[in-house]
Amino acid sequence: MLMNLSKVLGENHNQVKEEVTVESQFFAFDGDQYPLIANTPLALEIEYAGESKIKVKAKGDFEIIAACDRCLEDTPINVTVEADKLIDVAAPEEDEIIKKDGYCLDVERLVKNELFIGWPTKIVCKEDCQGLCGTCGQNLNVGECDCEDTGLDPRMSVIRDLFKEV
Ligand SMILES: [Zn+2]
Ligand SMILES: [Zn+2]
After folding, report:
1. 70 CA to middle of ligand 1, Å?
2. What's the 35 CA to ligand 2 centre distance in angstroms?
3. Would the N or C end of the chain have less CB density within 10 A of its end CB?
């Protein structure tokens, strides 16, 4: 949603304090899409901070589907957004989150940027996730594959073959 900032930037510099709904179905980072499956309303506080600046506080919890680092299976993760930012609405570098046309705050864009900051460094579907076989790609949580011999010295297989012939 776009939050109009005219109240905050106008003569009376009114504070905005609202719970807003984040409407994104997913968030996209680096070409990958991460579905949003649950979230609390975003508690948003915006106040005038002099000149063309505003102070934005935003807080909310998001449950998102991401890939397990080991087995790549869909894994729900919780990311808390807790932003406290000073934004110069006239600065070109803020163009992503401040729409200059009418001065609106792009709430989804703000959340996306903040999610990126709060993103977990490690995502595992479960602590003992076995990951994927490095040879055939089999998900080892689901079942074993036939690649167990690959770690062995190839010369050993010659000896094994000799035994087979006996
Ligand atoms: Zn996993
Ligand atoms: Zn394998």
Report:
1. 5
2. 30
3. C
